[in-house]
Amino acid sequence: MFRDRRDAGRRLAQRLLQYRGPDTVVLGLPRGGVPVAAEVADTLAAPLDVIVVRKLGVPQQPELAMGAVGEGNVIVVNDRIVRDMGVSKAVLAAAADRERQIVEERARRFRPGQPRLSLVGKTALVVDDGLATGSTARAACSVARAAGASAVVLAVPVAPADATPANWPQVDEFVCLQQPYRFNAVGEFYDHFGQTSDDEVVALLERAAVNTAARTTVGRAPPGSAAEGDVGSGGAAHSGADQDVVIPVGDDTVLPGHATLPPDALGVVLFAHGSGSSRTSPRNRYVASVLHDAGLGTVLFDLLTTAEESRRSNVFDIDLLSERLGAASDWAARQPWAAGLPIAYFGASTGAAAALAAAAARGEGVSVVVSRGGRPDLAIPVLHRVTAPTLLIVGGHDEAVLELNREAQRHLQCENKLAVVPGATHLFEEPGTLNEAARLARDWFLAHLGGTGVS
Hints:
16 strands, 21% strand
């Protein structure tokens, strides 16, 4: 049903778009729920945090919850269970103290030196990778409510058919993609369901914090500066943009995306993602951040809808992908924040073939093309028509794709270069390799859009 937690998070996010806004906080349940929640937070442009809770089990029946504790000395007690099971106040207090220490220890581990996000007056989106017994999720929703959330939404990719969190008093809405009748464990609905480490949780939270900070600063100019306000009489300045967008691509199809334009940008780079990637990919977002720092605008969007992406053949339909990219280029050119700026493409995997095919069709309308770990060979029939200076970036250990790029390069008649990043495999996951790929892309764009490369 789901490739991995990231895939589940991207799909779940599409059901939560109505919660996009400044009053939403996404809360992942450690550890497995955090990768899912990270994708939701990226799509909704919302801050991400963990909600650390511990269930208070009845001493003689630990699986039965008599309450829960969370950060900030929050305690939720099920008075009926406490009464029916004869639990004394002293026993309850001792259990709460014991579990509270564990909560504080885990919170320090996941969020070292950082305060938890306030939920007062916010909509709390509590996200996990699935629902089994529901006891932890129920406790988390209770804690979110006790911490001041004005609304609590529990969102999971999968749960049993008889799960009814919508009836829980602490939940305002329950969002679930699938509730199958045959349900043994959450992991059976994932192709890849490995354990999420503490380090991964910390890394996802740190990245989300950086993204949240960037959303509040990118595109803002100091009061009274030349970049502030409307374009002056010279018509050359752009005040910048940092916003979620919806891109119409024909046939009543629209694609969600995010546009970022630094003030006085040199150009706009449209990202064409390939198989298994998306506009929220950490790799693509990292490359985009490097381009922003160099004064380049970006538009990150998905070439396919969620339904279309489920059909594997669409991922390799280069004609469809290039048409979508061309439509997005037309849309970008009509936006006030991009008026008059040159359009460039950054493609990965099959998205690189789409970028080259779109560049071949649009001629001078595309100024530069960069491919990272791409499949330009899928566009060989039209490569001779590409006029935009083209850079092909491939990992030195990605031998099969490297050979395909060499073959494609022989068909290019425009200015072109093949750059090999030593030690990198296909996804540039090795230390320093993605940074090198981003640097190569940045310098190629700047060299052909009138900027200056940065060491």
